């Protein structure tokens, strides 16, 4: 049996460019008709690992972290909404939107991977956050979304209380940091070459074609 091309996507649930990057990669895979030759695994990266429970207003957060003005942020949000729409994804930014802690989400994504549902849960959570104005740090919200992709909420609750499961997330983050990953999305192909940022579809097509040819 032909070995699949392994793609690791290092990203966070509340990272808009990660969503755009994945949707562009997905489009490239579909247009090349190579989905049966690809294996995707999501890797954890917390943009704000010390974010408190209450989160922080997104405008204030980005102003404090990056020094962006409100006008610059509005323009960026409009641009992301346009890019998302081109890919069939809705970015619904609103004044009360809050950046939240994503540790629990990453713990559950590790559980979902074991059940073959990782991409399903990832896209459900980013849709909940960016399109449906839901708080993906709220455990009840997480458990509800998890059930919609067919995962067991009782097992999920057990994982959230398991310090070992939580430590495995931070260990994985440490591994990718040690390999030089400092921004997301970072997309690693067969543990050999990496692409950073939400690259255009054609760039992903070029990389995919090259990597798949090397495997034959």
Features:
Glutaredoxin; single chain; four-stranded mixed sheet
Word description of this protein:
By secondary structure, this protein is an alpha+beta fold. It has one domain (5-210): Glutaredoxin. It contains nine helices and six strands. The protein has helices at residues 16-32, 58-66, 70-86, 103-114, 118-131, 139-148, 153-161, 163-178, 201-215; strands at 5-11, 38-44, 56-57, 98-99, 186-189, 193-196. The strands form two sheets. It has a four-stranded mixed β-sheet with strand order 2-1-5-6, with helices on both faces. The protein has a two-stranded antiparallel ribbon with strand order 3-4. Helix 5 crosses helix 6. The radius of gyration is 17 Å and the shape is globular. The mean pLDDT is 96.
Brief overview, please?
This protein has helices spanning 16-32, 58-66, 70-86, 103-114, 118-131, 139-148, 153-161, 163-178, 201-215; strands at 5-11, 38-44, 56-57, 98-99, 186-189, 193-196. It is of the alpha+beta class. It has a 4-stranded mixed beta sheet with strand order 2-1-5-6, sandwiched between helices. A two-stranded antiparallel ribbon has the order 3-4.
Give the neighbour order of strands across the main sheet: 2-1-5-6
How many domains, as an integer? 1
CATH architecture: 3-Layer(aba) Sandwich
Q: What is the CATH class?
A: Alpha Beta
CATH topology: Glutaredoxin
User: What is the beta-strand fraction?
Assistant: 5-15%
Assembly context of the chains: single chain
Largest sheet: 4 strands, mixed
What does the overall shape look like? Answer: globular
Termini separation comes to 12 Å
Number of separate strands? 6
Mean pLDDT: 96
Q: For this structure, what is the CATH homologous superfamily?
A: Glutaredoxin
Query: Percent of residues in helical segments?
Result: 55-70%
Order of helices and strands: EHEEHHEHHHHHEEH
The stretches of 5 or more residues where confidence is low (pLDDT under 50) are none
Q: Which class do the helix and strand fractions yield? A: alpha+beta
